[in-house]
Design goal:
About 30% of the residues lie in helices and about 15% in strands. The chain has twelve helices and eleven strands. The termini are far apart.
Length: about 400
Amino acid sequence: MKIKIEILLDSLYEYYEKKNADKDIVSAVVGNNDTKTDKINYCSIGTCCGLFEYYLPELGFQSAVSCETDPLRANFYTVSHTGTHMVQKSIADPGAKAEIIDWCKKTDVQLMIITLPCQGSSSLTGRRAKVKNADPQNWLFMDALDTVEAVLPKWVIGENVVRYYKNVREGKTSEQMMRERLEKYGYTVIFITLNAADYGTAQERERRYMLAYRGDKEWRIPAPTTPKHLTIRDVIGHLPPVESGQDSGIPYHRVNKLRSDWVELIKHTPTGGDIKNNPAPFNIAYKKDGVTPIKYKFAGVFVRNEWDRAAHTITTGSGSMMAQFGLHPGNLIGYDDAGYPLYDNARPFTVAELILLTGLPETFRFPDDMSETQMRIALGEQACPLMLKMFIENRPTD
């Protein structure tokens, strides 16, 4: 009997050693206790795959309950944040709200993170302010604050585009309404606009944050930790060149087949350059008919980034050659037959590059069933994880 048990344990050990080569084998076999009491439980409303929360486990926090409407994102979240109770419904659903409140109370949630959809307020939609203001997504924060009122956690952190806080209803802005409700519940409230590039992320991403807390101690926001910003060169300069239709063999560092006429334009665009400043005939982009010039709806279309500065804000359409300021900086590699300079990496950033420009580690992996488009949307929508890490490290504590 003893010999049989030893053989069984050896087999289990060998199995888990192969499946968990980068993990502690004892933890893999026995199982990590994700609900241990020395962890601080939090609730995430509007998770965006949990990328914003990536660094929380190393700071002693664990997700107890989360709310996400998209099935794929919800599944990814539950895999990457094991032990969470996923509510796959809108926060506006009364049943979902009740379920979240119940789980928050059961698990003694002390932190609530609110990152709701910004599309109703985004400048990239091109919609008039009046139309944006009426978008129901802009008012989901009222439902999220219902859960705060019922749970009363120690800390509340919200993040969104600056415009989100300027919507008006009944003579009050969104920000005024948030402040009034939170102060009514006994919170001290801070609203602050920060750029992720000032805090260790190689991306110019300006967002407005809401910090609410209970107690007498102050939530101190440190001065920028990286006055000299991390640059694109700093974080992706080691990756090899890759062109249209190529795969480098490095996870996510590949490029889909791109329109050859547009690639030719970008090949003639220098680092930090705009195709409109290229020599003719490489200074005009045409529609598929090859005759009709494209009219640019937004600034920054067909513009390369610069190596020695942080990247421009990453958008959900980052895979397009027409993404706003979404093109790789490129390197001078020679000259064409007419003597014009040529530059490599004539393409948008790869997903591998976007991961690093977002502040995630190079080892980060998306689930296998997630398409490249879905990855790019998640990276374009998410709040930068190093910002949340900074807030948590500087939170007021007893």
